[in-house]
Fold each of these.
Amino acid sequence: MKINFFQIVILFVFLFLIFFLVNNFFYQSIKNTVFSIFSPVEKFLWQKGNSFSQWRNGIFEINKIKIDNNELKKENLLFKNKIIELANIEKENKELRQALGLGLEREYNLILADIISKKTEEDSILINQGKKNGLKENMAVITNEKVLVGKIGKVFNDFSQVNLISQKGFNFDAKVIVGESETLGAVHGQGNFKIKIELLPKELQFKEGDIVVTSLLGGIFPENLLIGKIKTIKKNDLTPFQEAEIIPCFKEIKSDHLFIISPK
């Protein structure tokens, strides 16, 4: 059977329509199906990739925060140290002003010292001034309020030992203030931060709270440095004198600074 030209044209048109329909409808459906199948996988990979990116960025941010935090801690520590240093300077200046306010600088050359440590069993303390600062043995040591603490014992280049007036064997002359009168006596260190005054005339009346200060007699300390207050009084019929226990004023000291009296 012969196929004419018209039939060939009809066949080509028919094939073209089939190709057109497949390309525009079935292809889109296939693409949609493929996308539907693989889209969850792509979404999962994208989310994981995004999460990994966020995690990676988070790690960098955490490291940066840690570095910044460490820097802030260092700066904060330096700031605190500076505050402490300024506070110590202010405290020293305040005590120096108090000492100057009492007129001590008119009477003595004063050397400011810091307390390094205390030896309770020896009734002594260690200070941060020594030979290089002009300190010598037997120099008086006081507070900014003219309270007698002791005297310089051993002296080293950069520090010195202060023997407290309560140290056993520490003896010096003093006087008790009773009203407008003064009575001489002798102070003796008892150890363990205790002192007493002896050789007080029996015929005189003393009471708890009477003030005891230094005397020029003996030449160990300047006059009228505060020693303490009478606590208890003891009388003995066998002797012409009485004695009294003294509460030393240096026990009430809360400062870390002392003054050494140097001769003018």
Amino acid sequence: MAEDEFSNEPVREFCTSDHPGSVLQNLKELRDTGTLCDIALVVGSREIFAHRAVLAAGSRYFASIYRSDYTETHASRIELGSLDAGGVETVVQYIYTGVIKLTLGNVHVVLAAATHLDVLHLKDYCQQFLSDNISLGTCLSVWAVADLYDMDELKVQALKFILDNFTKIITMEDVLELPMERLLELLLKDELFVDKEEALFELVVKWTKYDVVNRRATFPKLLASLRIPLMELEYVINNMKSEPLLNEFPECLSLTDEAVSYLMRPQLLKDLPPAGLNTRPRLGTLKDVIVVCGG
């Protein structure tokens, strides 16, 4: 029979709108009952069962494994020891459902798992959640996480919050847990908002003594980042120079002596301040400025 005899046959395409969602729901039910699961993800002492095809469809990490010929390609178990079991379980549930519930308690482990397993959109959801929940209690950890996972916009947002609110953050225990590099980065910022520079010296001392054995050697570098000429002369002489940590390092004594000389003769040295001293005011120490415009 010639082909053209069928050319006028009626053709109609039917589409079940909820078919993809229905299939996913059925796959989730299969997983929930352990039916046809063919892979176990081992995280610590926990095994998380799933289907290879579903994982490959939802994770570029697993897609790479199952489209290649690695040892894991044919294994019935894959070790994910560096991740958190709860985070991996949440990510696997997302792959099966397209739904994720993030909290301050799980977002960090979910982000780690989502990044490692390379799950589309999930890293963005974590970033959005962290962005929406930057506060005094979370800003330092969000800043660190944003840097770790190369979330540049989030890092800028968290850093701005920290700089703007440092007068409150400086009193919190979390600031004492900062690595030296991060604390130094903050201390070097013109935008660091503080009422008085003296508070930063007290923070440096407190931070150093929090783990004095391991941090003592970093004290001179942190001290050099402070703007001692912004402090009151009486404070430098009576409080700063009497600090035992300061007296352990000749370079610290020299720096404070130089600052005292400057503070005693600011008018003579204002046009050419000593090279080792930063006299530039910070945002929080700037006094009110009245601008008068004439017409």
Amino acid sequence: MGTSIFLILVSCIITILPLATAQNCLNQFNFTANSTFLEARNVLFSSLAANVTDRGGFFTDTLPLDSNDTLYALGLCRGDLLNKTCFDCISAASKAVIDNCTNHKEAIALWDHCMVRYSNRFFFNVMDTRPAVFGYATSNISANYVDEFDGVLSPLVDELIVRAATGSSTLKFATGDHNYSMFDNRIYAAVQCVPTLSSGDCNNCLSGAFDDYTSCCLLRTYVNIWSPSCSFRFQLSPFLESTVGAAPPPPPSPVTLSLPPPPPTNATGKEGMYVDGDLLCIGKIE
């Protein structure tokens, strides 16, 4: 990471919610116009948005090259996004990387809704927490609710981290919300890991992102932290496009069934009961 880093940061500190964008171009090389690596990257990125959308918001590709190089590429959308939002974000982020990282063998675009990344080194299951983009509001939580806010956000995020880390190899994403005042002021939060991370690395990455929050932007009303391996976001208004990642509903309450009352006594015979399998039968014995 120490070699020639070119960073374009369009928006890092935000008060309303424009698209936060950052492209990091790493490991600069003097590509020729017809470089095999450059051509392969451009071709792969030209279809990356379609591949990510067609596969539910996550796609990786590995392309061996004649020059003994290998191109690794990844696209990831926030787990709740609708197809159009996902496609548009991956498409725009891919174009930004191609336009700005013209002679680099590694690059990553961390946007509000998605991430695209490529490299000549394998990174799919490697936890990387830097470079990172920190987006946050300039306004703070009302002083009247600081203790309540702190008391709700931390356990909410802990719960989401556990759910995300135990996700699948195609989706490690969890969302939730909780009120923090008697007036039902709510925190809405989402966490996500690159699905190819192990559960342990996902947990560590998200825990580190929460630590970053406590260092950079404690008690802000909106925070969005993207790193190459995970993301953490919360705000005080709904922002999700679907219910993907929400906790499953609680199971229904058990239903208590009562047996019907026995028939009235008949003087002409004796009443009795017999059990047939799981069915309790009440009948008349003559």
Amino acid sequence: MPDTILLNEVKKTFGNHTVLNGVSLQVDKSVAYGLVGLNGAGKTTLLRLMLGILKTDSGTIAINGFNPWNHKVDFYTRLGVVLDHDGFWGNLTIKENLKIFSAAKKLTWSETEKYITQFWSDTVIATADKKVKHLSRGQRVQCSLCRAFLGWPDVLLLDEPAVALDMTAYAHFRMIVKNAKERGAALIISSHQLDTIDDLCDRVGNLSSGILDDLQCGNRGHVRWLLFTSAICDCLPLLSECGCTNINSSNGRWDFLVNNPQTTIPAIVEKMVRCQYPVFEIRPETTGFSDTIRSIYTKQN
């Protein structure tokens, strides 16, 4: 079974300007990969190469085993896309547009109607009979998302998919992404909305100066843990007995390093109970991708 998304040493230049300088990436099934970078970093160029809109100067791209530049029909039928231009016909209604895209994906209209009823019944897609040109920006984004996930494709390439979505529409989008991952889809989500990246993505890469670097963050590999208890409780002895290191405290808040949280944290709680110390909260100290990204951007500026 070929890797879902596989890029190897991809390079792309425009004139004397190198946009991508040896980008390599592998995204497996059921993984959402966040693509971030400053304006002009080359994120959209990278997506267009993966779609076969642009051709690489060198390197290879395989999406579900297909070379996008060969423009095979089977490649596009198993692909979901959201780009800055939604590609809808403004003088047609939502359903008239979806009938066209449904046929392009080799789906029957009854299959598409079932999909709309099951997953979009509370949205404008199922409830309105408007021409697309009369929709708000957020409604058009929802239409783009509906089309992208139509047929539950194996790969989804989404450029700013959450822009203009209100809270209800975003919650719905989040549910759709979760459903797609459970069905084995691989997703690339390019966005400047760092909260969206934090919320939806399992891995994140920062594109800068033509190089794509994978980012690490605390909430994907917790290092420090926090314990909240009464300010009068001295937890230092029991934390030390449990093998915790780098222990700090302030007014009932304790933070420390744990090598094996699966066994150490239950042991800490057990000792706290034996000492009759209250445990208000014990949890990993989380640092999201967004914190790492902001730190990188600050250094770049």
